[in-house]
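In practice, a research group might receive sequence data for several interacting partners and want a quick structural hypothesis before committing to experiments. The following worked case mirrors that situation: the sequences arrive first, and a predicted assembly follows.
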Amino acid sequence: MASTIFEKHTPGRKGYTLPANDVDIKLEKCIPNEFSRKEETRLPEVSELDVMRHFLELSQMNHCIEKGFYPLGSCTMKYNPKINETLARNDAFNNLHPFQGEGTTQGVLEIMHELQNDLAEISGFSKVTLQPVAGAHGEFTGLLIMKAYHDYNGNSHKNKIILPDSAHGTNPASVVLAGFEVVEIKSNDKGLVDIEDLRAHVDENTAGFMLTNPNTLGLFETQVEEISEIIHSVDGLMYMDGANFNAILGIVKPGEMGFDIMHYNLHKTFATPHGGGGPGSGPIGVRDDLAKFLPAPMVDKKDDKYFLDYSHTDNSLGKVHSFFGNFAVNLRAYIYIKMLGTKGLRRVSENAVINANYIQKKLEKFYDIPYKDQYCMHEFVASGDWQKEKYGIKTLDIAKRILDKGYHAPTIYFPLIVSEAMMIEPTETESMETLDDFINSMIEIAKECEENPDLLKNAPLNTPVRRVDDTLAVRQLNVKFEL
Amino acid sequence: MPFISNTDKERKEMLTAIGVEKFEDLLVNIPKKFLLKKDCCLEDAYSELEITRKILKLAAKNISSTQANSFLGGGIYDHFIPAAVDHILLKPEFHSSYTPYQAEVSQGTLQYIYEYQTMICELTGMEISNAGMYDGASAAAEAILMAARKTKKFKAIIAGTINPLYLEVIKTYTVGVGIELVVIPEKDGLVDLDELKKSVDEETGCVLLQTPNFFGNIENAFVVEEITHAAKKALFIVAVDPISLAVMNAPSEYKADIVVGEGQALGNAQNFGGPLFGFLATNVKLSRSMPGRIVGATLDVDGKRSYTLTLQAREQHIRRAKATSNICSNQALCNLAATVYMCLMGKEGLKEAAVQSTTKAHYLSKKITELNKFKMAFTAPFFKEFVVRTPIAAREIITKLQTKNIFPGIDLKPFGHKNMLLIAVTEKKRKCDLDEFVKSLQEVTNG
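A structural hypothesis for the assembly, expressed as tokens:
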């Protein structure tokens, strides 16, 4: 393992330069003694070269898209074009202050305005806010729109949000944060919403329904129209979790399928970098009559001038972020959409769906694929049940062995309704050769389960560290270096 | 097609392998009525050259703080960022990697987060930091939720001197859970301590104070702590500027229970207000109520030191509806920028940035008040930001100086303070920049 930066500390070493202070005022005259720090910080003293070597060493212990394939279901780990990075690093974007005013920020406002419109067009919604900065943040915002809508209509008693048992963990967590109760309903034997169970749980207190479509099994919710009729019949709202939007660009529009609100994960669908866990962006699209509840401000245009529109603040749910969302992330998504155009966007989804079905088909003899009698959309879920029953190999072992083969692992043990789940999503940017290599590795692993199960139980063997002890990390909590 | 690898020939081969003739055959589960009859109405695809031209043209419609003499702050600051920071951010291993759930192939991310947590703990004097939140405002809101969870008391008292944008986000975040917010008025640019004392009672779950506060003034956190902890269970939450911590009290000195703040000033550009990142630190006894990711050190099966996400039983992917927060990201690249920044600047550099920002701000305030037209709005000690009373509407000054590419500061009128201008200074300003600004203020208020 790499030593920490603190172990590279050498008193007196410097990694920065600054001009000499050219005003003659002493700090002691500015900050009273009682508010002055008593002991100096012990931040490391290292040179720029020390820093570069340290972080280079750390970087080499990470997997990343440029290094290899991520068959990571629900996460859409597609390639992130480099032109986005070059253009987003322009001084006239990076060094803009959010309080600068509209006069000196027309360029960014124009980008935001166009992106709002493009996202609305792609999804069939009327208005889009760019303020939420992550998918989960978007969910929270969308749920507060539901709350604002019901309060506005004098229906404050509506306190229940229904979601299927295949939902992402963020869905129920967001529901609770927004002050609603979670009602979980079952999926049927086809992996889709169980309509009878839904009917049994819908009542006058139903505020809305959250659905990922295609769902987390990678299956299109065929009965979406019926679902939305049931929800709308009690004046509930339909929320679309856009995590899987990559499957349906240019094919269908959520706004035309009965959904009233949707979040987009720009860091998935629109190729902004995952960054090891953010920053993301989770804009929200809504149907026309819900626009008045969106967070302020929106970006609007009048007489060729773009401006920040605070006019709807009477009904707005408030602010979810200090400013206007993650502009620099939104800019990358904007560039990506412009470079794909109408045809390119549809092509994205076509290739994502073909790639997923190709892997599903090729692996069906080697792994249990519970819903293989249906074509999947952009991802599918396999199960490690066969390997577990026959050889005592868990999905976790398989996942760790996949790391040894030079890939990231699939999403595992999710969705919760499939035992020993492995959720595989190739994305459109991967080539057939990459998929064939991955398929061959998966087949090899299936054979290893039979011939050399210990290999899997001990995996990974070729990674920077081997299986880490999560229990020890909790039992002997060590969350900072002792300086 | 851009960014798609498969050729038409490969696509055909794959469709054959799947057992269908054409792509549309894979869509049998989608009701026909929803399949789009006509294309989306977007622009035609831009090539790389064309999009570059378009973006450069749009960029030219903005004026950056590099091109201008900017005194804008209010939570977002134009501090110096060493060039090396961006070189690290651009490394694909950080840039295009996934959340470090698979620890064995994510040690790079996990270790720098561990180092980040260590540095945040060092600055704040706290025992445990999470891996980051969306921004300072949401970190403050999550801290209030955390205090309510821990104390089971649903009254939160907030100093009215906090950043008003934080207050707006806090309102949004607490409305669902049903937390009662009591905002204590401002007096002379500081929180009214008498009013605060009257409001804190046995129902109080927490008191939130910002120091330096929205006006740049330094609050007496020692007194606020005493008032807070006089209530049996109440937790003391403080929001701080991380740069200030190089020279101002570590929040542990005044016994804060939870420390939050906007981290942008640490190595992140202003980016028109996003991405930002919030930090949140506390003591171990509150760790299980914390929101967000946390990295811990551990061992691998060979006994080798390694890192992993820990205390995950608090998080949404495990606990779902019972999670401490719905957050599922940590603005990782922004935290990385902060980590690299703190390494490069180190103990001396961070102090130098803080000292220069403060002393230059004080020089500027002196020069502006010497014009005899502007008065300091408050008498309290301040850090790198201060408020002046303006002889004419602040908006008028801003509009006039914008034509000279000077951004004089934030008009406080929309926040309820007429004829007041909030002025921020960082170490990037030279004496000549400050003098130019003073001169222009003189001119703009003449006659």
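Before designing any experiment, note the following. The first strand of chain B starts at residue 69 and ends at 70. The CA atoms of residues 46 and 54 of chain B lie 9 Å apart.
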